[in-house]
Amino acid sequence: MLLWSQIALFAATSVVLILTPGPDILYVMTRGVAQGRGAALAAAAGFSLGNFVHIFFALIGFSALLASSAHAFQVVKYAGALYLVYLGVRLLRSPTVALGGENLPLLRGRRIFFQSIVANVLNPKVAVFFLAFFPQFIDARQGSASLQMLSLGTLFVFLTLICFSLVAFCSGAVGAWLNRKPAVSGHLDRMAGSVLVLLGLRLAWPTR
Hints:
- The protein has one domain (4-204).
- The protein is globular and about 60 Å long.
- By secondary structure, the chain is mainly alpha-helical.
- It is built from 10 helices and no strands.
- The protein starts with a helix and ends with a helix.
């Protein structure tokens, strides 16, 4: 059973790390500015729930494989980068549309949701993060390590959903303001696509 001090320290550290700028939170902001609050919330939910896949990977040892195998890490890394670039190119090639929610098909939100899950799952840095971060808060004296990791992982997903939703609400407000500026709103998809392509290239950029 997790101690309250253990949970509090984990929660405080997690919030700081969740709000650290990265491809996921920037993607949520981009969706909010380009398409409004609903699209940003869909992206926030997708990225948050996608963490459950990494929790599962951590439990079965897949994260350990990514950490120990440079080849496996690179394969998943480039797959995630290519996916982000693909999403960006699709936005760059899409016809310009207004941000009004009534002009967007209902499927759009679900598509963004599932795209965000895929983008999260294909980011090996998240898997390695789970492997490096979670064990620091697991105490073998408090019971099953797997159960502790599952509990902390669920808490992390919940905290991510709250933080990303706040970001989505703020970026959605910015998007609504820009929508009243026709000269700007007509180019938002192009801006969003460019950001996603750059994020994909940054993820694929060789690092030591």
